[in-house]
Design goal:
The structure is a single chain. It contains 14 helices and 21 strands. It is of the alpha/beta class. α12 crosses α13.
Length: 404
């Protein structure tokens, strides 16, 4: 979920952060070099391409895969002539067999009882913010923002209720750019009721090109930290308002229905989780079952959640790590390589559920026998760290992710 591949004529590099160092070392073939970002003296991929190692090389980029700010930063540091925006992704050109189909799952309506605000109300509030900034058009490329704005959900991505799409909001139009096969009659009626127009997904660039040429356009608002370079570069700089999407702040403030849904789904999820832990404790300590694998744990926990109302799918692939596997961030058990769990082992269990009314994410560490002194020490140190962060008064201007 986080990494950049840099391929030259004679080398291949993978840049990724500390969450994936151990996994990458296990899975990368010897022909690749792992660049452990965050470690001392390891450059970012942007610093690497600006170093003597890549001196004189032209950096080719698929503009649909990289945010505009990243591409603009490269052009500034390397010179525009050394950064080439490709018309076709080179991997697309060679990946012709056994390639998954582009996802095309049907949208579903996110009912008002859980959304709390209807689409027309959201659009009205959004247009007020746009007017304050003299923006006549807003381009929305973040999928979570699009789903929230139109009160719909998708399933194009496993564990993530979104659908691949773009949206454009103007003072008098709301357009959803999406594969028409994803829209059934019910969703079409829902969107039409709020005057949302549908256009094919691939029309976005031609639409923005025409809009940018319109003399009546003032500012075209685009969040260049998240919008890809292909989208942003068709908007001339003298018409491009580069600011964080206003939808970010709008959807961060939860209404009563959203808060109620969050609480309700956590109650159901908590009950499912406790039922699972009770079953696991009995299997290990009463029946002395020594054949449960990490995959078995995922399957039983998912089945427990699925027995409760409004469950859709896991909110991410369950991380069930026995002993050393618990140290692999975002570890994913496979049937052929997973470990078995006994009451003498330590288990890290990180899991969650997507429900129609909310999302959960629960992490717990278990030992069903007698842990060693070292395990107790490490567990206690982590616990003390959590308590310290929980009690800390945030220094002014310090975001939470810096507190570690």
């Amino acid at each position: 979920s986080a990494g950049v591949a840099l391929i030259t004529s004679d080398n291949a590099y993978l840049f990724t952060d500390g969450r994936y160092h151990e996994q990458a070392e296990l899975e990368l073939p010897s022909t690749w070099t792992l660049m452990k970002q965050g470690n001392a003296n390891v450059p970012t991929w942007q610093e690497f391409v600006a170093s003597d190692t890549c001196k004189g090389l032209t950096i080719s980029i698929d503009p649909f895969l990289h945010p505009y700010q990243v591409v603009a930063g490269l052009q500034k540091s390397l010179g525009a002539s050394r950064v080439k925006l490709l018309q076709q992704n080179l991997i697309d050109a060679i990946w012709t067999h056994h390639r998954p189909q582009f996802p095309c799952t049907t949208l579903r309506i996110h009912p008002l009882q859980w959304a709390g605000r209807d689409v027309s109300e959201k659009l009205h509030g959004l247009r007020e913010v746009m007017a304050e900034h003299q923006a006549t058009t807003l381009v929305v490329s973040s999928l979570d923002e699009i789903m929230w704005m139109f009160n719909v959900r998708g399933s194009d991505m496993q564990c993530n209720p979104v659908s691949i799409s773009y949206a454009v909001i103007t003072s008098n139009e709301a357009i959803l750019f999406i594969d028409p096969h994803k829209i059934n009659a019910e969703v079409a009626q829902h969107l039409a009721a709020h005057h949302v127009t549908l256009r094919p997904y691939n029309d976005i660039l031609s639409y923005l090109t025409t809009a940018a040429a319109d003399a009546s356009q003032q500012w075209i608002w685009v969040d260049t930290a998240t919008a890809n370079a292909a989208i942003a570069t068709v908007i001339p700089a003298n018409k491009r308002l580069e600011k964080e999407s206003p939808i970010v702040a709008m959807k961060a403030v939860k209404n009563h229905a959203e808060l109620a849904g969050m609480r309700a789904c956590h109650l159901r999820d908590g009950a499912a989780f406790v039922e699972f832990v009770s079953w696991l404790d009995e299997e290990l300590t009463v029946h002395n079952n020594e054949h449960l694998t990490e995959v078995d744990l995922h399957q039983h926990l998912t089945a427990s959640r699925a027995s409760y109302d409004l469950f859709l799918e896991p909110s991410f692939p369950t991380i069930a790590g026995v002993n050393s596997n618990g140290a692999i961030i975002h570890y994913r058990a496979e049937p052929t390589t997973c470990q078995t769990l006994t009451r003498h082992d330590m288990l890290l269990l990180d899991s969650g559920g997507q429900y129609a009314d909310g999302t959960t994410d629960v992490t717990r560490t278990f030992h069903f026998g007698v842990p060693t002194a070292h395990q107790k020490n490490m567990y206690t140190r982590v616990l003390k760290g959590h308590i310290a962060i929980d009690r800390l008064v945030f220094p002014t201007g310090t975001p939470g992710y810096l507190l570690d």
